[in-house]
Specification:
The chain has 65 residues and is an alpha+beta fold. The chain is 34% helix and 35% strand. The longest helix has 22 residues. The chain is elongated, with a radius of gyration of 14 Å.
Length: 65
């Protein structure tokens, strides 16, 4: 998985996507980082990304293999 971090107008935005698959790129999650302390991604966002990665793996197997 790769993460793009962009700052705009004092806010930070993140997009997480996977290039794990040969034929397609899945965007797993995009969000505005709200925490003012540290750079750590909140656990609920990490859990959501993991859940969506599993769904992407299933979709890839069903549609591209």
């Amino acid at each position: 998985m790769l993460e793009i971090i962009e700052n705009f107008d004092g806010d930070t935005y993140r997009a997480v996507y996977t290039v794990k698959f040969q034929k397609v790129v899945y965007v797993l999650h995009c969000f505005q980082k709200k925490s003012k302390h540290g750079i750590k991604t909140p656990q609920h966002d990490i859990d959501l990304i993991k859940q969506r990665l599993k769904i992407a793996e299933e979709d890839y197997k069903a549609n591209y293999q």
